[in-house]
Amino acid sequence: MKQLQLVYVIVVLMFISLSSQAQTPKEPWSASELMPPKLLADHIEQGKKPMPLVLNIGPQAVIKGSVDVGPGSEKPNIKKLENLLSKVDKNREVVIYCGCCPFDRCPNIRPAFSKVKQMGFKNTRLLNIPKNIKTDWIDKNYPVQ
């Protein structure tokens, strides 16, 4: 009887696990589309050409040379992003970043990244800032505005 109860508990736990995984939304980027902050910092510091178009889609443009679009969670800023990118070659490397909060809770990166991909940009990257812009960029003395 105890073995049957154990099997029942295991089956229920597996079902719960599978159903929660099925409800977890898939990110609009792949792991290969994440850019390590050090890579971008080195690119900026060394003046490598061609420079990617670096877009801030958060509350403030912190990274040296980045263009401030504004929070990606706000529809007028997504329209601003769309207008800005309408004049850019679709083969150009575009790097977006926010850094307002931990990556998994950021309200800005998903709508902005999705819009850039939807517009057909082939070389889109998301700056991998897992904690926030202060911890993952400023505190490491990477180039700022």
Structure description:
- The protein has helices at 2-23, 37-46, 75-85, 109-118, 133-136, and strands at residues 34-35, 53-56, 67-68, 94-97, 124-127.
- The protein is an alpha/beta fold.
- It contains 5 helices and 5 strands; from the N terminus they run αβαββαβαβα.
- The protein starts with a helix and ends in a 9-residue tail after the last helix.
- It has a 5-stranded parallel β-sheet with strand order 1-5-4-2-3.
- The protein is 39% helix and 11% strand.
- Helix 3 (75-85) runs parallel beside helix 4.
Largest sheet strand order = 1-5-4-2-3
Structural class: alpha/beta
Uncertain runs: none
What is the helix content?
25-40%
- Helix and strand string, N-terminal first? HEHEEHEHEH
Q: In angstroms, what separates the terminal alpha carbons?
A: 68 Å
Q: Supply Rg.
A: 19 Å
Number of helices: 5
Oligomer: single chain
Number of E-type strands: 5
The general outline is globular
What percent of residues are in strands? 5-15%
- Indicate the mean pLDDT: 87
Largest sheet: 5 strands, parallel
